[in-house]
């Protein structure tokens, strides 16, 4: 999608990104749709750019607006369509909300406008029942210090604490994988996923946050290298929407570093679920808010956000940059694939170290929230596009 009310350069940049992203495909054709009309010069320029890059414009259409009864008609593109004007196809749009694609609750899909899209990521007032429950990690505006009273290497979950050396997000690094915490994150996502199918998701999230230890576990899941990839890999399968809703809930209720990290993880989860528009907005919000924090907080300082020694905030900003660069170039960064691989490895490690009495229960949980086939598809698609 391109804002054609910007300038010709926007259309040219979009054409170049699209042709670059599809250059390995044997047969490439494109359909151009103009919403609102009045873009004939831009359509002509787009056609020239596509043809110059070996992509054939198959057809072109104009629609007055995206609503039931909106008028549409075919427009001329170079090398496509009938030669006589009286042969152009036209008609009226059906109701877009009557799409046969239904969400898990069986409701027609909702199409948020730009303002609503932004509103999904705005901070919200913390409910009264959670004001005394959420720990300092959810309210902290500074980035230094322990975010939940523990360091990333401390075991905080339940179950067998089998350890393993894993690779950190930023490259080879040693850390402990506490399998009890991994199992706890999977159980939490499973609980939310099963209840959200029957109830209001926001209410279920608030109920879970009221349980002892859950806010701390979620902060760990967002910050720790041995838990963060678990959320990412779970976003690829049946619980993908649940993970995105959970991260959105964390981002809107938390403040400071936890909010920024949840926004970035939401962006990664959206990449895995083909939600590019929301991914871009979430990453951009994180980058803007971190930059504003560095500019206005004297304890942080203007150079803090780019200082490698600043820890969590610096890593969050780096991830946001990676995601935005991926969107602008049409090539997702390999770090997303690495997170998916590491998340799958951590879950397999947990299953191997799970006590015998809990193995069946843990496997049943995984069967509900993780689809190995979907993980393979997401990994293959990300790898294929990254190679370009």
Report what the structure shows:
- It is a single chain.
- With about 400 residues, the chain is mainly alpha-helical.
- It is built from 15 helices and 4 strands.
- A 4-stranded mixed β-sheet has the order 1-2-3-4, covered by helices on one side.
- Helix 5 packs antiparallel against helix 6, helix 8 packs across helix 13 and helix 13 runs antiparallel to helix 15 (about 370-385).
- The protein is globular, with a radius of gyration of 23 Å.
- Low-pLDDT regions: 79-84, 142-176, 301-310
The secondary-structure element order is: HEHEEEHHHHHHHHHHHHH
Structural class: mainly alpha
Fraction of residues in β-strands: 5-15%
Cα Rg: 23 Å
Strand order of the largest sheet: 1-2-3-4
Total strands: the figure is 4
- How would a crystallographer describe the biggest sheet? 4 strands, mixed
Count of helical regions: 15
Terminal CA distance: 21 Å
**Number of domain modules:** 2
Share in helix: 40-55%
């Amino acid at each position: 999608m391109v804002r054609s009310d910007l300038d010709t350069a926007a259309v040219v940049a979009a054409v170049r990104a699209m042709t670059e992203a599809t250059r390995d495909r044997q047969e490439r054709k494109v359909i151009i749709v103009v919403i609102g009309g009045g873009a004939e010069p831009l359509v002509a320029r787009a056609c020239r750019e596509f043809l110059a890059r070996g992509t054939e414009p198959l057809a072109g259409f104009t629609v007055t607006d995206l609503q039931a009864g909106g008028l549409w008609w075919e427009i001329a593109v170079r090398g496509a369509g009938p030669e006589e004007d009286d042969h152009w196809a036209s008609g009226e749009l059906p109701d877009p909300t009557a799409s046969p694609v239904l969400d898990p609750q069986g409701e027609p899909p909702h199409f948020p406008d730009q303002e609503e899209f932004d509103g999904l990521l705005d901070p919200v007032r913390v409910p009264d029942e959670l004001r005394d429950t959420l720990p300092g990690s959810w309210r902290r505006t500074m980035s230094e210090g322990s975010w939940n009273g523990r360091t990333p290497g401390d075991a905080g979950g339940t179950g067998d604490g089998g350890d393993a050396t894993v690779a950190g997000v930023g490259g080879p690094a040693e850390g402990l994988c506490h399998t009890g915490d991994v199992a706890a994150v999977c159980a939490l996502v499973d609980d939310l996923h099963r209840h959200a199918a029957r109830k209001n998701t926001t209410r279920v999230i608030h109920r879970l946050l009221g349980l002892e230890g859950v806010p701390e576990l979620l902060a760990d899941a967002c910050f720790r290298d041995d838990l963060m990839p678990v959320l990412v890999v779970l976003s690829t399968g049946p619980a993908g929407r649940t993970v995105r809703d959970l991260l959105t809930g964390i981002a809107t209720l938390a403040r400071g570093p936890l909010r920024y990290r949840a926004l970035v993880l939401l962006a990664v989860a959206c990449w895995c679920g083909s939600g590019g528009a929301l991914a871009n907005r979430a990453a951009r919000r994180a980058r803007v808010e971190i930059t504003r924090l560095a500019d206005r907080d004297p304890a942080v300082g203007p150079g803090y956000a780019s200082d490698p020694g600043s820890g969590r905030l610096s890593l969050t900003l780096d991830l946001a940059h990676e995601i935005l660069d991926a969107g602008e170039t049409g090539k997702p960064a390999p770090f997303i694939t690495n997170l998916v691989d590491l998340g799958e490895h951590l879950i397999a490690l947990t299953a191997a170290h799970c006590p015998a009495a809990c193995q069946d229960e843990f496997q049943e949980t995984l069967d509900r929230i993780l689809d190995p086939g979907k993980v393979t598809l997401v990994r293959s698609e990300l790898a294929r596009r990254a190679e370009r």
